[in-house]
Specification:
6 helices, mainly alpha, single chain, 147 residues
């Protein structure tokens, strides 16, 4: 078996860190439910017939789907399947877009901190997934030894 390049090993570790961060944000959504509803209600009149959304079930389902998909794809990525890399890339790109969209809604400060902290992590993952050593490994080429 071909040795996995450092870029791929780091990408896998950072993807696992992203899954852990997602669990933290999901837990935070449950704990800070009232703060989220207050932040949401700022843009909606109190006499409106629109009811506050149920943030917790949506966050839990979204986390289970994304984390499950990321974790299922990891063995394929480590096994050298290029399609798994592009699937992971797409998942992280969607997370970036979702994070930026969520920041526009002016969530509570703790959510802003987690969101801003996740963006460099996302950028590093995307970079490592398209790194030349990762690409060479996924094409089955020998990875050159680097000092």
């Amino acid at each position: 078996m071909v040795q996995q390049p450092r870029s791929l090993v780091l990408a896998v570790r950072l993807l696992l860190a992203l899954v852990v961060l997602g669990a933290l944000v999901t837990l935070l959504t449950a704990v800070q439910r009232e703060a989220l509803i207050r932040a949401w209600s700022v843009g909606h009149p109190s006499d409106s017939s629109i009811q506050a959304p149920a943030f917790v079930p949506v966050a839990v389902v979204l986390y289970v789907v994304y984390a499950g998909l990321m974790l299922v794809l990891l063995p394929f990525l480590r096994g050298g399947y290029s399609w798994a890399r592009w699937s992971q890339f797409a998942l992280v790109a969607i997370i970036v877009i979702s994070t930026l969209a969520a920041l526009r809604t002016e969530p509570p400060t703790l959510f802003v901190v987690c969101s801003v902290a996740s963006l460099p992590l996302d950028a590093a993952i995307l970079y490592l997934l398209v790194h030349r050593d990762t690409s060479a490994f996924l094409r089955g080429e020998p990875t050159p030894a680097r000092v």
